[in-house]
């Protein structure tokens, strides 16, 4: 079997691999390495809602036309609301904010990739290179927090795409959102893979002092090579741990999220990641099992075969053993942790390591009693 996979890997680039061709048939257009340098996905399949599917092939009339490299393009999005609500029973928040659509980090496993199909774009390279920014986010947030009857609960940011991805350096939307939340005394929980979060340590430390803020740094591996291929434009693992330490030293509770755990690829690092996070001051930790919904499955499999062909069949076999024989099971209660013996083993290893390190002894709950609704524009002032 190993020889078969090696043969697949050798033939991958010239289109003669049966396994590679099956993945491309399942997902769509493969993009040349030079054109996608520095990106995660190797495919750019047509969005699932599009009436026409496009593919690239050699018709025998000579070399295919050279195309330019993928460059990051940002469009301004003008949403009518900014707080997204959910009633999912297996997550800890009921509202969130996404300052951006798409994510330049290019994490190959990102479960948010299929959302780009709603924009008529590909969940592959388009998701990483054709981004949408919402510069009105802070204004919309202030308006929504000021609505009569609004009941404060923790707003989660970074649960879909990363609010501190590279374009945040220019747009600064996340910082403006934090300024509104601080002024209103509203609690916020942030998840990020970016060391850019320390830029806002001044606001976050003030909010944390009042019990209004906490941050989770997502650390999937300590292996720089694996991180570079799997999360090509995210901060290095070392930078994330340094950010975690800086936040904790500033009084901002910064925990670690091992998300996702990929069996046969990074699950061996669970204990090392928790050790490193504990040394960086973390007191809480969590993990999520790899999720491969919709177009994410073929995009991930294509990446896995290109970078780790010798592990391809083993990794996919383990994934399916935890998903009832499928690439993914979206059932609530199962999608985050999986089922079966291997999923159980991952859970017990995580729990034992966390217990040994004194993690998760208590969960920090953010305050909601400090909330003060923003003043509505044009409201008549009281007479002295």
Q: In percent, how much strand structure appears in the residues?
A: 5-15%
Shape: globular
Q: C-alpha Rg, in Å?
A: 22 Å
Question: How much helix is in the residues?
Answer: 25-40%
Total strand segments: 10
SS field, number of helical segments: 13
Order of strands in the sheet with most strands: 2-3-6-7-8-9-10
Biggest sheet character = 7 strands, mixed
What is the number of domains? 1
Class of secondary structure makeup: alpha/beta
CATH class identity: Alpha Beta
Average pLDDT rating: 90
Fold and architecture overview:
The chain contains 13 helices and ten strands. By secondary structure, it is of the alpha/beta class. The chain has one domain: pyruvate-formate lyase- activating enzyme (Alpha-Beta Horseshoe). It has a seven-stranded mixed β-sheet, with helices on one face. α1 crosses α2, α2 packs antiparallel against α11 (296-307) and α10 (270-279) runs parallel beside α13 (341-357). The longest helix is centred in the C-terminal third of the chain and has 17 residues, at 341-357.
Annotate the secondary structure layout:
Blueprint: H1 2-12, H2 18-27, E1 73-76, E2 83-85, E3 95-97, E4 100-101, H3 125-129, E5 130-133, H4 137-145, E6 155-157, H5 168-171, H6 173-184, E7 188-192, H7 201-209, E8 213-218, H8 224-230, H9 237-249, E9 254-261, H10 270-279, E10 285-289, H11 296-307, H12 312-321, H13 341-357
Parallel strand pairs: 1-5, 3-6, 6-7, 7-8, 8-9, 9-10
Antiparallel strand pairs: 2-3, 4-5
